[in-house]
Amino acid sequence: MEIYIRQKCADCHGVGQIRHPLWRKFYEQHPDPVTNEDVRQWFEGHPHPLPDEQIPCSSCNPKGAMRQPGYIEEWVSVKELLELLLGHVR
Ligand SMILES: [Zn+2]
Q1: Ligand 1: distance of its center to the CA of 29 in Å?
Q2: Is 61 within 8 Å of 17 (Cβ atoms)?
Q3: Ligand 1 centroid to 18 CA: how many Å?
Q4: Do 1 and 76 meet the contact criterion of CB atoms below 8 Å apart?
Q5: Within this chain, do residues 90 and 71 fall inside the same structural domain, yes or no?
Q6: Are residues 21 and 52 in the same domain?
Q7: Staple 11 to which of 37, 38, 55, 59, CB 3.0 to 4.6 Å?
Q8: Are residues 70 and 46 in the same domain?
């Protein structure tokens, strides 16, 4: 027997978007308050143009997917389901 389950995505916490890796690094190195000058200097040192701060989460929001972003849907066996449930209560 298999069961179809839907779970909130662990990577984006159900939002369907994540912060771009360069922006994540930026915020790690620039605690609040952040100025426009901080942003300008940081991205000047990188070979890319200024990327969008939020990008689609690749774990739950692959291009062309017809499901709701932010959630993972999959068929699991009863064994897998039990392991998932036990993992949640621990
Ligand atoms: Zn996600």
Answers
A1: 24
A2: yes
A3: 7
A4: no
A5: yes
A6: yes
A7: 59
A8: no
Ligand 1: centre distance to CA 88 (Å) = 18
Quick one: 24 and 49 in the same domain? yes
- Residue 56 Cα to ligand 1 midpoint, Å, equals 8
Beta bridge partners of 76: 3
Q: Is pLDDT of 87 > 80?
A: yes
3 plus 34 within the same structural domain: no
Q: How far is the CA of 52 from the centre of ligand 1 (A)?
A: 17
> 17 C-alpha vs ligand 1 centroid, how far in Å?
6
Distance of alpha carbon 45 from alpha carbon 69, whole angstroms: 33
Query: What is the tens place of the pLDDT at every residue in 28-62?
Result: 988 888 888 888 888 887 766 788 899 999 889 87
3-state secondary structure of 28: helix
Domain that holds residue 5: 1-16+64-90
Q: How many domains does the chain have?
A: 2
